[in-house]
Amino acid sequence: MPGKFITFEGGEGVGKSTQAKLLAERLSTSSVKTYLTREPGGDVIGEEIRNLLKKSEEIDPVCEVMMIFAARRDHFVKIISPKLEQNYFVICDRFYDSSLIYQGLLKRVSIEDIMRLKQMAIGTFEPDFTIILDASFDTSHRRITERNLIPDEYDLMNRKKYDLIRSGFQKMAEIFSFRSVLINTEKSENIVSEKIWKTFQNL
Ligand code: TYD
Fold this sequence. Notes:
The protein is of the alpha/beta class. 57% of the residues lie in helices and 14% in strands. The radius of gyration is 16 Å and the shape is globular. The mean pLDDT is 94.
């Protein structure tokens, strides 16, 4: 596939959605064909599954991961692959790394099972580059509160769970260092966005 697939990852309230949007805007103004999308979501089935997941109070972790990979398969076939074929830079707010952390590390679904689902859904496909955003519990908690939306299960997680997810993503940045970079987002939106842009230009 000739385009590039760039993913944003990290815990709740670290600024992924904002920074993914800023990078997409910056690439577009540099005349790069850009497509911004998110997971779970991206197309009709994925967005429906996202709504279902947000609505469901107590969902079995295996059921949850299967729903997420069903959404991912649809997203991959209908949006990601065709856009890459058309030479787009596809920027995705979360991808399968989130499943490894949330369903694997946090909810204890085995990594082997997750990787089997990954193989079924997207084969050997991998992101070309992953930007993992990192912030302290206090910063992210403040941002979520300021957002003023109705928080979901993951938004409301306590410090212990947040720190488990945070350390999982930090470790992931080390393990996947060939395709990822860890960026601290404690500073202002503009400073972080500039840092991401510089990293990106160095690629
Ligand atoms: P998020 O991008 O944080 O959206 P919002 O701004 O609406 O809170 O992500 C939605 C949630 O989906 C997030 O809490 C993490 C979860 N998620 C998983 O548990 N596994 C996955 O594979 C993905 C992609 C997301």
